[in-house]
Amino acid sequence: xxxxxxxxxxxxxxxxxxxxxxxxxxxxxxxxxxxxxxxxxxxxxxxxxxxxxxxxxxxxxxxxxxxxxxxxxxxxxxxxxxxxxxxxxxxxxxxxxxxxxxxxxxxxxxxxxxxxxxxxxxxxxxxxxxxxxxxxxxxxxxxxxxxxxxxxxxxxxxxxxxxxxxxxxxxxxxxxxxxxxxxxxxxxxxxxxxxxxxxxxxxxxxxxxxxxxxxxxxxxxxxxxxxxxxxxxxxxxxxxxxxxxxxxxxxxxxxxxxxxxxxxxxxxxxxxxxxxxxxxxxxxxxxxxxxxxxxxxxxxxxxxxxxxxxxxxxxxxxxxxxxxxxxxxxxxxxxxxxxxxxxxxxxxxxxxxxxxxxxxxxxxxxxxxxxxxxxxxxxxxxxxxxxxxxxxxxxxxxxxxxxxxxxxxxxxxxxxxxxxxxxxxxxxxxxxxxxxxxxx
Length: 440
Known about the structure:
By secondary structure, the protein is α/β, with parallel strands linked by helices. It is 46% helix and 16% strand. The chain has helices spanning 7-35, 50-63, 76-84, 107-123, 145-154, 156-164, 171-195, 204-227, 231-241, 243-246, 258-264, 268-281, 287-315, and strands at residues 43-48, 68-73, 90-93, 98-101, 129-132, 329-330, 336-337, 351-357, 368-372, 378-383, 389-392, 398-405, 412-418, 423-425, 428-429. A five-stranded mixed beta sheet has the order 2-1-3-4-5, sandwiched between helices. Strands 8, 11, 14 and 15 form a four-stranded mixed beta sheet that branches. The chain has a four-stranded antiparallel beta sheet with strand order 10-9-12-13, with no helix packed on it. Strand 3 (90-93) and strand 4 (98-101) form a beta hairpin. Mean pLDDT is 87; it is low at 1-6 and 317-347.
């Protein structure tokens, strides 16, 4: 009879494989479900003439409940204005059978509109006449090229955060790297899209692309201390699984379920799509709203990072130290960074460990260890565990000075050599203040 696997093994498997399982289920729920059969949901359409608009609204409501939001306009000029001002995605003139639309909103939307309004025009003895008021760029035939450009600025910032968590860099350096990657991605994507005719020459698109990279990057970085090992699921869920179907880039937001429509104006990718389309095809209409949304995400990320740095400053107060047997690195401005929030390192390197005991060999819990380099710069500060043990890794090579102290005990100071790829074991003895001093 085969023995059951121990719970620890099962837990390890679950903790290792939860993200692939999450990704598989997420793709089915967030991609296949909303996009396998696109159909109108609250699609804003204007119709010339009050009576025709009411009749068409009643017909569509009977055939496709909740599919259309029909609004009357006095004439064709009113229909054109509604589309160019982005108040509606289409306009129909029953007197001529003309359907006004903007291909810049996506080819899928045009196909659906043509299928729906062809029999409507035929019922009044007209052939459907198609008039495109905002053609997409010559290199963006399907109207989805803009989305793929934005994906190259939406996903890499999150990947950059994951890579930076494993890098031996200070927080300021990591944040500077996020800014650099964002600028690089914006310039490369803009240049490539322009060369392929996917976009027109609009330098303001560089700003939108950069804001998208920073909105995703800073928010992902700022979430690390709060979601910890679940960052891949949270960030990918927000910025990929939920963002793609709600962005309106692949399929117009009017063709996905209401839940994803509601996310369109909230998530950064949808905001960037709206802003760039406004700049490219609608004389800037709607761009300000999208840019403001990206700025809010950017500010939210900055607030998360700044808030955590403020919190660790308080935690770094000697009177507020509560950690046991763990270490903390100091940032370039004295802010302590807790590596427990970061992704695990692939291997332990340049480790110093040992125990703190009294003269009788009894552990000294709560002993404070301060480690400095040869110039006196503090590298780490920690508190020994209840068993008197401690461990510090990722120290620089060379000699470091370790100062150990505890209430009512004599401090101890020693120099220890740190070597790459090795664990240096060093114990400390803290005798009582009242114990006789050792003779030299």
